[in-house]
Amino acid sequence: MSEKRETRHVYGEALLEAGRLNDRIAVLDADLYRSTRTVLFRDAFPERFVDMGISEMDMASTAAGLAASGMIPYVNTFAMFITAHCYDQIRIQICYPNLHVVLAGSSAGLTQGPDGASHQSLEDIALMRALPHMRVLVPADGIETRAMTLAATSDIDGPVYLRLGRYPVPDVLPADYAHVLGRAPWLREGEDVSIIACGHMVSAALDAADLLAGQGLSAAVVNMSSIKPLDTDAVQRAMAAPLVVTVEEHSIIGGLGGAVAEVMAETGGRSSRLLRLGTCDVFGESATADELLDKHGLTPTGIAASISRAMGQQ
Amino acid sequence: MAVRDIDALRERAAELRTEIIRMMGANKAHHFGGSLSAADLVAALYFSRMKYDPARPDWPERDRFIMSKGHCVPAQYAALAMLGVFPREELATLKQLGTRLQGHPASHLLPGIEGCTGSLGQGLSFANGMALAGRMKGLYYDVYCLIGDGETQEGQIWEAIRTAAVQCLGNVTAILDRNGLKAMDTSYCGKDLAGLDAKFEAFGWYVREIDGHDMSEICDALDWAHETTDAPCLIVARTVKGKGVPFMEGVPDYHNVALTPEQVTEALAAVQSGRGPAKEA
Known about the structure:
The complex is a heterodimer of chains A (about 325) and B (about 280). Chain A has 13 helices and twelve strands. Chain A is of the alpha/beta class. By secondary structure, chain B is an alpha/beta fold.
């Protein structure tokens, strides 16, 4: 088992690396540079860093202006604020003209923890996924975070939402992993159930698959780290099992579960059932990250139990 | 290409108003009032002040103009077409299915449009971003941003005002089209503009107030803003909504309205007579 890392920390290091490779990269932050880890970039490239202060809407629109004049801005604050607080600016000024702006949403999901509902983004994937031109990337570990942070400049020419967290997770991908936009890494083979997960939930899903194996159930695990564009081939392959399960640290409405449900509903000739695990149309609350994951059934034990229950109902 | 002849600029402004009325035409609702109030300012920018090559609207060192009150973009469309950035005939496609001339500016569709606006309050932040990019890339150019007076009720405008000052964006100039009317009425919902000059100054801007239909004053103020490089400048341009068309002037009903064919004829005659743009008329 590798050392556990927070994806926001790896992002900060990768952003510094990207900044060294490309002098068009500019970084904007809204008074959270130590938390978002853009402090590393700031110290190395102060002339390409702007702390906008606590003015996220201004920051998003300023990023559009930077992009329209040839820079590649990485825009940083908590996931909740960069998506919900700036939605209008992102929609009209960034996505409509298809500008190359990277929105890095830090401390996403329930594992934001003690700050409670105001800071726990459980709808951000749904919001970003609905926007034309937007790509939505949710790295599963440090290796994928680095790959996606670099790819956001080198492989993409348009708006990107990169969802980052502050929960330590082990590496689940090989060190030589090469990210391909829209292709979901297939991490584990299995016939009885296919688990499609993203972000922090990928390592939890792998652990859940181990638990299920102990009960004689064979579970496949797919890392659906690119939610838009979605790897529809991978979803259809997952439908070889009688049960498909999505696991996300996000509402089951409109996010990974919603995206997979749309593909499954439009894929004819198969009869797989879908079980969506995530938060069920509720707000978050203050607690530790682990307490919240446990409450919402998003620990390995909770995921395995939900799947066993669903298999029993088949 | 710069025209310093004030009389010639007035003629260009009258021509610009003519194009606005023509492209809007009869029987369809359009934003006449605000487009006409901004016409002299837009003419002075594109036909005199701005460093701009119509053959290369994406020239990295060009001066930039952002129509933050995006519904008044027909004034910018007219200027760009008159410069030859795109064919004049295309003005007639305004807001029609498949057109590059959307109801609000679409920079990915039409050359010469710098950014997408239409949701009020966002253009000045965008202008700041363009100015910051120039600084980061070592290019020097001016960025002009036209904001509506009603638009200053948007909170984001004040975030952007602060950013421009804190970042010392001396190449940013905001022009406030102070036509005194909003979409519905003149009331400002109690959020009126008293003391606006002092508010900008308190945020670290230089402020100058002018008659926004006096071409000499406009040109002098734009030169002043260009030469001021240590802080952003605000030009408060006192204007008349619907300027140049007597039956529209100062009447809120002409914010977004459809004219009859007879009204179009009357409006064209009025702007072509030069009654509108010339101060002494």
